[in-house]
Amino acid sequence: MEKIKKQRYIAKKKKEDEENKIKDNKIKTYLIKDKNTSLYKIGRSRNPIRREITLQSEKPSLELVKIWYKNIESKLHNQYSQYRVRGEWFKLNKIQVRYICTHF
Predict the structure, then answer these.
(1) What is the domain extent for residue 78?
(2) H or E stretch including 12?
(3) Pairing with 52, which of 32, 41, 67, 95 sits 20 to 30 Å away (CA)?
(4) What integer pLDDT is reported at residue 3 of this predicted model?
(5) What is the rounded CA–CA span in Å between residue 59 and residue 54?
(6) CA quadruple 70, 71, 75, 78: dihedral positive or negative?
(7) pLDDT beneath 50: ranges in the chain
(8) Tally of domains within the chain
(9) Cα gap 86→90, rounded to integer Å
């Protein structure tokens, strides 16, 4: 009986992991620049273009720089944490932005 419960648990866990991967694959990472402050927002969204539009309604100086079709937001936040100004906004230079856009 215990063996059957364990097998069911493993099968359920495997299914949950696969569902989480599918959900995670739908999330994209984006890089937006504020042309007034030169700060960059590293964020994630299922629809980065719509996200840009909603952010632009409050701040028209925003410009979408790059979209990645995978969820690498946490990785970028961690790697560039020393350049964080507040929340998801970072003070990055052109070389850093070029590197992020070409190596991730």
Answers:
(1) 2-103
(2) helix 2-26
(3) 95
(4) 58
(5) 9
(6) positive
(7) none
(8) 1
(9) 7
